[in-house]
Design goal:
The complex is a heterodimer. Helices cover about 75% and strands about 0% of the residues of chain A. Chain A is an all-alpha fold. Chain B is of the alpha/beta class. In chain B, about 45% of the residues are buried. The chains are: A mainly alpha, B alpha/beta. Chains A and B meet through α8 and α9 of A and α2 and β6 of B.
């Protein structure tokens, strides 16, 4: 465990219990017995989900940036999150969006995007084209899924369906239950394992793809690990919480200066920092004194977009 | 022994057959687009041939396990790309990936051989061009390969750094390692290689000792330049005639 992992693990250990106390109803010692119900059935699953989803997004972002050797890569670019969103939107559109069917449809959407990505980018005669193919295929899938999602919104049978689709797309952890945790946690853990396994190969990619292959990296295996890892972490996150952007982009950036900058050293602390960011952001939207709760996805984008601009400005100055 | 048999690759290599010996420095020369880098990549097992094959000690390279191949053959691409600002020690340690160990001794001796020991903790971004080239070579040495294949490792370096790097490679060759370099500078190839391959439009035009391979007839034929060699063998300089 490196220094960055220790820092974020410690912060997370403090933040999780504190986050349970914060919300519309502040919980303190000597409260009525229903405090326990609020904790166990509302706040705890929500906190666990925030940790699970944030960890998946942070680790996927770190792995993607390592793979593309580009600090501006985001797992959302590669079509898996839009694919999952499309699946969920179809469930909402045809009106079968129960607590079980909606995430299931989203997972099918994520799986479809993964399969399409692997199908297009997986077999290439010239391995040197692999990364370009992967990126372009991902962006193509993302825009196709986005267009189909917009189509579903424009064809929504009634105002209620339209508003439920739009609201869901914005991403939130409001009123999530243990059932959502049961769905997302094992899938995210499996995805994190795949990303972690890719670490050494990602280190080799630091030297460029030809040198990485000369060091024994199999481009096919690496791509498979990343597609499965990103698909499971991001896909299960979207399935239970909708689209939550920017975490995968910001977190590896914030964490990288605290590490030795090898991609493999970045994956675990990015998972921990992603968990921390989503957890804290969710507490903030919960305690903001608004009539309706600010959607988590919107809040993170509100933080994320200016951050991205700042990065671009800094890059411009550096160059 | 690292061999190619009838190696052909689209319109880049045309029936190249050669057998390279360990313990020697082989230079691959040729005009731009002659297929030098392609041949080097193929020798490293990074390209699949359309026809023919590459053999390492008699066994087809394409059938070797990836890690076994990576332990035997160290490949230094021309790009010199290092995507993240890692320390020199971590950069050099990447050479141990095929072995799956930290290889502390191999990493330390690779850095010592390239005079990079004092730079171990330095981020790569703070290195000069010559230091970075040495660090990247140390990365290859850390893997303790039996073959070192380097694509124009000398191109961007000043004279002193060129000679320093060649000294390191010569020491490796003395230790039994087969060194194969793509070289643009014909005088460097002439003076420092034990053997020279001349490629022209994907075909092997010469494959012998440097004095013979880089004869004035070959230079005129392949590069279309009239030139003559000055000096004694081992200290040659090339002058072109206009």
């Amino acid at each position: 465990m490196n220094r960055a992992s220790l820092i974020f693990a410690a912060l997370l250990l403090v933040a999780v219990p504190l986050s349970l106390l914060a919300g519309r109803v502040w919980i303190y010692t000597g409260m009525t017995p229903n405090a326990l119900a609020i904790l166990a059935e509302l706040r705890l699953p929500r906190a666990v989900l925030a940790v699970v989803i944030g960890a998946g997004l942070g680790a996927a972002g770190a792995a993607m940036q390592g793979y593309l050797r580009n600090p501006l890569a985001d797992p959302g670019l590669f079509g898996i999150a839009p694919g999952a969103a499309l699946g969920a939107v179809i469930a909402l559109y045809i009106g079968v969006a129960s607590a079980i069917l909606l995430p299931l449809f989203a997972l099918i959407g994520a799986g479809g995007a993964m399969a399409l990505l692997a199908l297009i980018a997986g077999r290439t005669a010239n391995p040197a084209n692999g990364i370009a193919l992967f990126t372009l295929a991902g962006m193509m899938i993302a825009s196709l899924a986005g267009a189909l999602t917009s189509l579903a919104i424009s064809l929504a049978p009634n105002a209620f369906a339209m508003s439920s689709i739009v609201t869901w797309l914005m991403g939130a952890l409001t009123d999530r239950s243990w059932a959502d945790v049961m769905l997302a946690a094992p899938l995210t853990l499996a995805g994190l394992a795949a990303l972690w396994l890719a670490g050494r190969d990602l280190d080799a990619m630091t030297l460029g793809e030809p040198a990485a292959r000369s060091l024994g990296v199999s481009p096919g295996r690496l791509m498979a690990l990343l597609v499965v890892g990103t698909g499971l972490t991001v896909g299960s996150g979207v399935a239970v919480a909708g689209i939550i952007g920017f975490v995968g982009l910001i977190v590896p950036h914030l964490v990288r200066p605290l590490t030795d900058k090898r991609p493999s050293s970045l994956i675990v602390p990015s998972a921990l920092a992603g968990a921390l960011l989503v957890l804290v952001a969710d507490v903030v939207v919960r305690i903001l004194p608004l009539v309706t709760e600010l959607r988590l996805g919107i809040a993170l984008s509100l933080i994320g977009a200016p951050f991205f601009l700042m990065l671009l400005l800094r890059m411009r100055r550096a160059a | 022994m690292l061999e190619t048999r009838n190696l052909s690759l689209a319109d880049r290599l045309n029936i190249v057959t050669t057998a390279l010996q360990p313990g020697a420095i082989t230079a691959i020369c040729g005009p731009n687009g002659a297929g030098k880098s392609t041949l080097l990549s193929a020798l490293a097992g990074l390209l699949d041939a359309d026809v023919g094959e590459v053999l390492l000690d008699g066994a087809p390279l394409s059938a070797m396990p990836l890690r076994g191949r990576a332990k035997a053959i160290g490949y230094l691409p021309q790009s010199g790309e290092v995507a993240w600002d890692v320390s020199v020690a971590n950069l050099v340690a990447l050479g141990r990936l095929p072995h799956g160990d930290a290889g502390k001794f191999a990493v330390a001796s690779a850095m010592a051989a390239t005079a990079m020991s004092d730079f171990a903790a330095r981020p790569v971004s703070t290195l000069s061009g010559g230091e970075k080239a040495r660090a990247l070579l140390a990365r290859v040495l850390a893997g303790e390969p039996r073959w070192i294949l380097a694509d124009e490792p000398l191109a961007a370096l000043d004279l002193a750094h060129q000679l320093g790097l060649l000294k390191v490679l010569r020491a490796q060759a003395y230790g039994g390692v087969g060194v194969v370099l793509v070289v643009h500078d014909l005088a460097l190839a002439m003076n420092h290689a034990d053997r020279v391959l001349v490629l022209d439009e994907g075909r092997l035009k010469a494959d012998s000792a440097p004095e013979e391979a880089l004869s004035l007839e070959t230079i005129n034929d392949v590069w279309g330049v009239k030139a003559r060699w000055l000096g004694e063998p081992g200290q040659r300089a090339l002058v072109t005639e206009s």
